[in-house]
Amino acid sequence: MTPTDSLLLEAKQAILEEQHRRFQSLQTEGKWTEAMQQFQVTLGCASDLLSHSLSILEQILQERVRHKELQPPPPPNEPGPLTTS
User: Which residue range forms the structural domain that includes residue 51?
Assistant: First the structure.
């Protein structure tokens, strides 16, 4: 994960928290129509944050798979002592 990815995730998290705070305020004030509209905005922010997080995780997984494919295979294991049953 790059520093840019980290900053973007932090910013999206902060936006989500602010939108959620607005939703809760509207709900507390009994402004149900506005609260439901804000709820949709909050869900959109949450979806965006989760999608971006998933995208980063997929990139990390792909990088690890590529890295593993580029490494030479480990040497074969030494044979252990022979035992009889």
Answer: 3-68
